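Batch job 17 of 40 flagged for manual review because the log was empty.
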Amino acid sequence: MANTQGAAASAAAGAAAGAAAGAAAGAAAGAGPIPVYLLTGFLGSGKTTLLSRLVRSAAFADTAVIINEFGQVGLDHRLLGRASDEDTVLLDSGCLCCALNSSLQDGLESLYYRRLRGEIPPYTRMVVETSGLADPAPLINTLAGDASVARHYRFAGVITTIDAVHGLATLDAYREASAQAAVADVLIVTKTDLCDAGQLAQVRQALATLNATAQVRLASAESSDGEDRFFDGLHASERLPVPAPGQPPATPLAHVLRYGIASYILHVDRPVSWGGYARWVAYLQRHGGERVLRVKAILDFADGERYAIHGVRHLFSPPHALGPADPAAPERAIVVIAQDMSAEEVAASLEPLQSDR
């Protein structure tokens, strides 16, 4: 056990050092790491329709978007220019759209260096669109944990589209759709102009049951609620609910019995050490593994800093510094979204996290 904990502690320290080095490299290039957002949603959820409108919005002037297929988004009608290759299109809105012809890691790195060389506009954020059937977990792992990505980018959050008309049936019939909604930071309910108030209320209730911590926005064919803010500040301004006094250590927030997907919140009442953090990560990796769909946390560390924590399945990204720790702030908490894990199993992870050993 000592060797395992020592290795985990070394890994955590290495990850923190890597994150610092990546941030320093980004700063040396003239900016910090570029935030990357994952846009996901099941087949027919309205994701492509939403994206087609967003890429033409002035709010996306400084955004690069990696899309599945140019033809589906209909980019050929409003071109300002085209790069020397045929996989990059600059719209008159200023949004840069790119088709991915290689691995995500290679695509992100290629775009970054083309940006540095002045071949494409200096985008300040990146949006990656997934296919409708995609399990978001591997992509989140790549964006949050891959060393080649972390040199220039930081994972900033997940936005998931849900169809107001057929969303309830889709969530019930397809595990992938439930997983996409469960791990989201923002849930965009689309096609609200095609449903009545009763249908919309049912969808919102189902989403609150599935993912109680996500922001919910509404979208129709013509407009969206606050669409200029869909991709702003999810990571740095993330706030987690705080359990009321007297609640059990792992308080259930939501539960989908059909797939065994549940979310729990754990309250952390004091700063944690880097060694405790490493033991906590090792515990979740060992006891949760693939059952841990996503972990989101805001923790104060013994070094006096506050960090945002993101994990998917057995992979955790380097902690992201948010600023000085604030003992008076109540936001220190962990949200664990898991499949087929009991509240007792999740609560047991607090012991290694808060242990002084």
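Reviewer: the log was empty due to a logging misconfiguration, but the result itself is present. The domain at 31-229 is CATH 3.40.50.300 (Rossmann fold). Unflagging and moving on to job 18.
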